[in-house]
Amino acid sequence: MGSLTSDPELKYNSGSFTNPLDSEEFRRQGHMIIDFIADYYKNVEKYPVRSQVEPGYLQKVLPESAPNNPESMETILQDVQQHIVPGITHWQSPNYFAYFPSSGSIAGFLGEMLSSGFNIVGFNWISSPAATELENIVMDWLGQMLKLPKSFLFSGNGGGVIQGTTCEAILCTLTAARDRVLNKIGRENISKLIVYGSDQTHCALQKAAQIVGIDVKNFRAIKTTKSSSYGLSPDSLMAQINSDVEVGLIPLFLCATIGTTAITAVDPLKPLCDVAKQFGIWVHVDAAYAGSACICPEFRHFIDGVEGADSFSLNAHKWFFATLDCCCLWVKDPRALVSSLSTNPEYLKNKATESMQVVDYKDWQITLSRRFRSLKLWFVIRNYGVANLRHFLRSHVNMAKLFERLVSGDKRFEIVFPCHFAVVCFRVSPSPVLMDKLKTKYVNCLLSEEEQINEFNRELLESINASGKAYMTHAVLGGIYAIRFATGATLTEKRHVVVAWTVVQQHLEAFQSAFKP
Amino acid sequence: MGSLTSDPELKYNSGSFTNPLDSEEFRRQGHMIIDFIADYYKNVEKYPVRSQVEPGYLQKVLPESAPNNPESMETILQDVQQHIVPGITHWQSPNYFAYFPSSGSIAGFLGEMLSSGFNIVGFNWISSPAATELENIVMDWLGQMLKLPKSFLFSGNGGGVIQGTTCEAILCTLTAARDRVLNKIGRENISKLIVYGSDQTHCALQKAAQIVGIDVKNFRAIKTTKSSSYGLSPDSLMAQINSDVEVGLIPLFLCATIGTTAITAVDPLKPLCDVAKQFGIWVHVDAAYAGSACICPEFRHFIDGVEGADSFSLNAHKWFFATLDCCCLWVKDPRALVSSLSTNPEYLKNKATESMQVVDYKDWQITLSRRFRSLKLWFVIRNYGVANLRHFLRSHVNMAKLFERLVSGDKRFEIVFPCHFAVVCFRVSPSPVLMDKLKTKYVNCLLSEEEQINEFNRELLESINASGKAYMTHAVLGGIYAIRFATGATLTEKRHVVVAWTVVQQHLEAFQSAFKP
């Protein structure tokens, strides 16, 4: 063996280089980064919530090419603090009220770390049995917490899988639905397939339809109205399907939403599934945001009727304390997914797969490689427990209700859409006095009265966000521009909601004082 | 404000619950998990590499439903040690030589942690400018390190994006290629489109083709042969294309591979691109595994000809020290991706996007939400530096060469396919003496001589893997079953390679001593 150790090509192993995964160096640097992140959370409230940088800011301060020699982690972390943190929009800030929350938690973070630490590639059972089996178990746990029908659980011959995002969940189920139909009627009929959603459905549906080869003219974004609180009307769906069927088209897939992105509207599951059933349509329920709330008995009714659906998904990274990404998808018929998405190359063949006793998740999703995502969900559920998780979610809903009360108590504002969950849509009201002033403010802009009040609210929102004190986004519906205030950031406490409201008021007052007399 | 704090619904915020993202509790538990993972790395060598559990093992020890009350992180980590670790196949073990490596590193892990800590959802520029801009910069860095033509870099009007896996990269580029053609010739012609790969191309291509609606009969897995070292022959490609065109079909997409999954074969890029160019075919280069090595000048020639391709991808989580997942994709024409994959819902509208001065990565990929993946790549490149990264890769190649020498020095074995990178394919040779013994061993099995030697090697591999002392996988090519030994696990040192070889020899000797005299 002496000749081997003296091999000059192999110096690295016995030489002066520290192994990039050396356990003691890992320990030292790991503790350093924990302190860095803990300090970040301690200070996150002080940073402007929406990043204030200009496009191209980073290129000006980073080198044009990679360093040839190593730089210390200390130096890198200094650069993170100096150059990266200012370019971050702080989703974990307690003053973050934009889009939907990205609700981090210690348990979710720790689960993610452990997953990164093991760094296994769990494409099939044998590649790490624990990764597959824990996912089976935890998805059944969460399914039970949601009171999903047993047919969606492994214990009822359905099953759950953790994917990255809703976009993937919809893409997979749509592919499965497409192939189920085309295998019967012939692949040449792809151009007859019709996909249904509402004008409030997440853009993921349209993108998935586009990817699987559904012509954009075969995508139906059925109009919703105020009368149905912007939920998809079963009558409208039926009318659309009938007119499609009449001309020889084939209804394929419906995506119903519990908690739409703009205003958290709810599509009525039961009657929609009843309509879909008549035509053999695959119904996917996108509960990306609001699904989490349905572990609370008082919210569960929003998914009544789910027993008529084929698949159901929620994003545990949105409002369930799991770190991004963690989209939980349940299907009644896993074979439909597997039939569309399975591959069986020689290099992955193994005894466990051949025994047919195991799940190989690679056949339930787009990608082959997959992270051990169930760890974080398991950590979250165990470390907080069902009772606390409900408590946390309710606290966010209550903070939204508090904000709603604050808005309602100020006559200059109005609630635009009712708050089902933890998102409040409001605006400065178009009072006669204000509209009179806006007529002057926008005198040269050729705006209608409706456009004037919308523009005014848009400017108000931009002014709030530019201050860095709070970050909110917007929704436009029925011609109305609303400011959208979403609670759910984990660090948010009641005091932040109260301050955010004060910020809104102050910005309005500043605007008003700028009006010419 | 007094009336607000006494609101009974809001007790949570002022009550006894610790916030799930409390910075000091984060610090305490964060340090705990770092120590847990550091200890895991310290001990990982002691665990059986391939998990030894039986299907269903975990269900027997975990509760059937979620706990109502919280459980401490200490309890959870005990369960991880007791129940999860035995179910893990240890990809980070120095004795892991299976599939391809999942090369972890401290820098990659730290970058991943920071990304989880910020937990931003970087779908567009404004959602965290640093996430987009750092990705732009780092992808240009890595592109330069690979000496990709400038047309693939942002600085040359192309650009790079970090996706999860090669499956996504192929799916996105194939969708873009499909739409580029169908927009010209009409969507009804989808059934005429042909996708090309070889019989060695990764199964991701077939799956992507299936998802985007290419009929399986329009998928060409062109046969490779020993004479071209299992690389795709440009002549075979040309012949196949000609016969497709002759019957009115339309060549669409070619996936060429640098380092195939089975035996790391290399498709000859330049002549393949020359053929493709004549037919306007989109060429994607899948360098998932071997691309990393091309930062070393002595390996760069393997991607000569890449200037003729449309897109190029490598998995930095395979052999470039980034934690899973980190697939780097470069395209010459980002507009083709954006044109197929963009969405523009009202709720995502913002000034930065409208200014057209920024990249919104949501339009370069399948999913909307995306993690801050560039941090880990930036950390890896800076913390090790280009010189060390080359050194690490070379050390893995040298360890594979060492193993190859060890195999070659034992007359009972033979190298089956030449080793380009860090994967060695070998087997027990079908010597006349051995074949004579196998005739007796398999007397009741109705196997040809070829099948007998294959079965013998299969049994040998299973015996090695079942021992837990090393984990290797297999490849079957040209009727030959080979044992496949891949170096690249970060902790592997020369001594592990030597021991693994001893394990192979010992298992063969045990088999031989079991032969009846």
TrEMBL record, chains A, B:
The keyword Amino-acid biosynthesis does not apply. Pfam families: Pyridoxal_deC. Its cofactor is pyridoxal 5'-phosphate. PROSITE patterns: DDC_GAD_HDC_YDC. Keywords: Decarboxylase, Lyase, Pyridoxal phosphate. The keyword Lyase applies. GO terms for molecular function: carboxy-lyase activity; pyridoxal phosphate binding. The modification N6-(pyridoxal phosphate)lysine is found at residue 318. GO terms for cellular component: cytoplasm. CDD domains: DOPA_deC_like (cd06450). One of its GO terms (biological process) is carboxylic acid metabolic process. PANTHER family: GROUP II PYRIDOXAL-5-PHOSPHATE DECARBOXYLASE, TYROSINE DECARBOXYLASE. Belongs to the group II decarboxylase family. This is Tyrosine decarboxylase. It comes from Citrus clementina (Clementine).
